[in-house]
From TrEMBL:
<dbReference type="Pfam" id="PF13614">
    <property type="entry name" value="AAA_31"/>
</dbReference>
<feature type="domain" description="AAA">
    <location>
        <begin position="46"/>
        <end position="224"/>
    </location>
</feature>
<dbReference type="InterPro" id="IPR050678">
    <property type="entry name" value="DNA_Partitioning_ATPase"/>
</dbReference>
<protein>
    <submittedName>
        <fullName>ParA family protein</fullName>
    </submittedName>
</protein>
<dbReference type="InterPro" id="IPR027417">
    <property type="entry name" value="P-loop_NTPase"/>
</dbReference>
<dbReference type="InterPro" id="IPR025669">
    <property type="entry name" value="AAA_dom"/>
</dbReference>
Length: 363
């Protein structure tokens, strides 16, 4: 791993400097239209409440996508890295990827300054083969307040700061996985202004989870001036039991509730993925504690993970010193692999539709 610093980015603050409440809407629309083609590889993981697994979904998605690029490189095909970016004071993403105890951990200070104050963007390259990441943490708690303050002067354009940043580096990455917090509307708006494709996880069956999904769909609609292309592309269930590989009534019941919610909102119930992640809390906890996404943890649990020197990584143990259950680890990894395939299939279909629409508009 090494720290790379983007030092020649154009000023994001200058781009929004002339915007205020009196600015003609057409001028903002022109800026948004210029940005959109550069951001169609940005996948946002978000939900309108905490505890639903957005970060776990995002880190595993980023890891699986990076494995795909690594495989392409091995086959002699063109390949680009994946960028994982978390905008959250909790910093769970850096924990999932084992970046907590590294020299790169600045607790999100550089990321905060890059988004809100034209700072250089710092990226940890080679977190895994073909996977780069920014570092989040406590300093990211300042992002919402800073954006809101800028919005007092520059109105809606302030929420484009993240989009303006990502648009300058998006060509360097195959996909950018953006993990943004449900805790503040300013963060939600900035994330929704940047992402083209949105993935929402559902982990709980209570009404709060349904309200969280309603919040996302409502914010998408209210954010159209900042991003006319953002859409909820997939909904993934995390942590639901499987019996002989099949879902239980708990999942089928909550699925019916969400299908109705989507229908009531005029959205396609088919957004819900058939693939889902089984309940494997003990293994999921070990994955985070060991700083490994599910697929990588499964390789370690089965004695197949090699370190940078080509030597076998010791099999992970739980808090009682027992080896992690290899079969459960593999099953969890397979679930995340299936969900990742489901997500990226939907994303590619949407991108094809957007390109077709763009061509029709140009003709």
């Amino acid at each position: 791993m090494e720290l790379f610093e983007y030092t020649e980015l154009q000023s994001r603050l200058s781009a929004i400097a002339d915007f205020d409440d009196l600015t003609e809407p057409e001028v903002l629309a022109q800026l948004v239209a210029q940005l959109r083609p550069y951001l169609r590889n940005v996948i946002g993981s978000t939900i309108g409440k905490g505890g639903e697994g957005k970060t776990t979904l995002a880190t595993n998605l980023a890891y699986m996508l990076s494995e795909e690029q690594a495989l392409r490189a091995e086959q002699g095909k063109s390949a680009k890295p994946i960028l994982y970016m978390e905008i959250d004071a909790n910093g769970d993403g850096r924990t999932d990827l084992g970046l907590d105890a590294t020299v790169f951990n600045d607790h999100g200070k550089a990321l905060r300054d890059a988004i809100t104050n034209d700072g250089n963007l710092k990226v940890v390259q080679g977190v895994r083969p073909y996977l780069d990441a920014t570092i989040s943490g406590k300093f990211c708690a300042d992002i919402a307040g800073r954006i809101n303050k800028l919005a007092d002067t520059h109105a809606l354009a302030a929420y484009l700061l993240l989009a303006l940043l990502l648009a300058q580096i998006s060509h360097l990455y195959r996909w950018i996985v953006l993990d943004f917090s449900p805790g503040d509307k300013a963060i939600q708006r900035a994330g929704l202004a940047a992402a083209t494709h949105l993935v929402s996880p559902i982990h709980n069956t209570d009404n709060a989870a349904l309200r969280g999904l309603s919040t996302v769909t409502r914010l998408i609609r209210s954010n159209r001036r900042l991003n006319p292309e953002a859409e909820l592309t997939a909904i993934a269930f995390l942590g639901f039991r499987k019996v002989k590989g099949e879902p239980t009534t708990e999942l089928t019941n909550v699925r019916a509730k969400i299908e109705q919610l989507l229908s009531d909102a005029g959205m396609d119930p088919g957004l819900i993925l058939d693939e889902y992640v089984r309940d494997a809390r003990s293994i999921a906890t070990l994955c985070r504690n060991h700083g490994k996404p599910a697929r990588e943890f499964a390789l370690a649990a089965t004695g197949k993970l090699l370190d940078d020197k080509g030597e076998l990584v010791p099999r992970p143990r739980d808090e009682n010193g027992r080896y992690a259950d290899a079969e459960m680890s593999v099953n969890l990894a397979d679930d995340y692999s299936s969900v990742a395939r489901g997500v990226i299939t939907r994303v590619r279909q949407r991108n094809a539709q957007l390109r077709e629409k763009e061509m029709q508009g140009a003709s």
